[in-house]
Amino acid sequence: MYKIIRGIIRFIVCYILFRVKYKNLEILEKYEKCMICPNHSRIFDPIFLYPKVENMYSVAKSDLFKNKIIAHFLQYHNALPIKRNSNDIQGMKKIIETLEEKQNIRLLIFPEGGVFKENYIENNRKTKNGAIYISATANVPIIPVHITVRPKFFSKVTVSFGNPVFPNFKVLKDRKFLREESVKLINNIYEFGV
Question: Can you give the pTM of this predicted structure?
Answer without folding.
Answer: 0.89
